[in-house]
Amino acid sequence: MRVKGKGPHNATLMFVGEGPGWEEDRAGEPFVGKTGQELDRFLDGEVLPSRDEVFLTNLYRQYHGKDYIYTSEDLAQDEPELIAELQQVKPRLIVPLGRHATRWFLGDVDLDGVQGIPWLSPND
Known about the structure:
By secondary structure, the chain is of the alpha/beta class. It is 36% helix and 10% strand.
């Protein structure tokens, strides 16, 4: 099942993960498995917005199994959907979760070197 992004289209905060796991595939929603449960601990509505105030999505849209390695064909199929979500939501802050999402936004960077550092879009 293709797992599309979910959240308000006027969200100021967007989380972008790598791709859905089997629980997301079953539910048809992003971040409902273990990563989603961990994310929910932070999205408390007090320090950070609540889950229903942020847009949650993934770079890749289909679950192909635990050990599947995404290909350039997968990216070619799924990237337009992410770009459309970014254009529609226009978040002020994007939080990429993991190597694939981070490198999609920043290029071939060393994750230890960029972790926790805010990067501004050239349009800001």
